[in-house]
Amino acid sequence: MKSRTIIYSAYLIASILVSILIASLPSIILFLMAYQNIDTLIAAHGGLLAELPTLFRNTFGDLLPTVFYERVWFIILLPPIIFFCYGLFLVILGLMFRLARHAIPRLADGYYSKESEDWLIYEFYEAYYVLYPYFAWLFTVFFDTKPRHWLFGAKIGRGTIIGNGRLFNPERTIIGENCFFGYNAILSGHVYEGNKLYLKTVRLGNNVTVGANAVILPGADIGDNVIIGANTTVPKDRLIPSNSIWVNGKAIPRRGAAVDLPVTVVLDHGVVMDSESPDDKSNKSF
Question: Which pTM was predicted?
Answer without folding.
Answer: 0.77
